[in-house]
Amino acid sequence: GAEGSTLMSYFSKNQIQALKPKITFSTLRDLQCPVLQSNDLQGKPEESCSTEELFEWLGAVLNQVSLDNKSSSFLSTYCCPEPNTVVEKAFLCTITGFIIPEKIMQLLEQLCCYFGEPKLAHWLTLTVHGFADSPVSWRESEHGFHKGGENLYNFVIFRNLDYWLHMAVGAHDDCPP
């Protein structure tokens, strides 16, 4: 009786807290960004960077790794791929929690507003991570945690609404079709 109702109130209160996503915003100033061409996935020397170079750069930016290739850095000597351009202000928003696909579609639509005036972004990106130790990934297979628990996809959307889609999963996982 009383024990059951106490338990129910505990779970309902904590489930509500667990389902409420945590949102953080930051502004990155004078950020070195790769130059991208929507129709050129492989990149061209001195013209544009490849999808792989972009994906690696994104990992560095999202993990707040310095991009200036200082030999004194014990953490990373990574530098932004060539060709690149310095963006005066880049906006980074991180949402942590359980987010349904419909909300991700809404986020993509809202992000596309950055292509309009006065913002006029050239491209933008949305990365969706599954939890590293999630029991499922894509298709019918269990998600293999093994070493890193990779389980993510990333959209790069261009002003002309072309887009690139990166997918990353662990070596023992099924990749989506």
Set out the fold topology:
Blueprint lengths: L1 H18 L2 E13 L16 H12 L21 E13 L4 H11 L11 E7 L21 E8 L4 E7 L8
Antiparallel strand pairs: 1-2, 3-4, 4-5
In percent terms, what proportion of residues is strand?
Answer: 25-35%
Q: Please identify the structural class as seen in this structure.
A: alpha+beta
Taken in chain order, the helices and strands follow as HEHEHEEE
The N- and C-terminal alpha carbons lie at a distance of: 50 Å
Strand order of the largest sheet: 3-4-5
Q: Compute the gyration radius: what is it?
A: 20 Å
Total of helices:
3
Please supply descriptive tags for the structure shown above:
single chain; 177 residues; alpha+beta; 2 domains; 23% helix; globular; ribonuclease MRP activity; ribonuclease P activity; RPP40 protein; RNase_P_Rpp40
Overview of this protein structure:
One of its GO terms (cellular component) is ribonuclease MRP complex. One of its GO terms (molecular function) is ribonuclease P activity. With 177 residues, the chain is an alpha+beta fold. The protein folds into two domains: 22-96, no CATH class; 98-176, no CATH class. Helices cover 23% and strands 27% of the residues. The chain contains three helices and five strands. It has helices spanning 2-19, 51-62, 101-111, and strands at 22-34, 84-96, 123-129, 151-158, 163-169. A three-stranded antiparallel sheet has the order 3-4-5, with helices on one face. Strands 1-2 form a two-stranded antiparallel sheet. The radius of gyration is 20 Å and the shape is globular. It starts with a helix and ends in an 8-residue tail after the last strand.
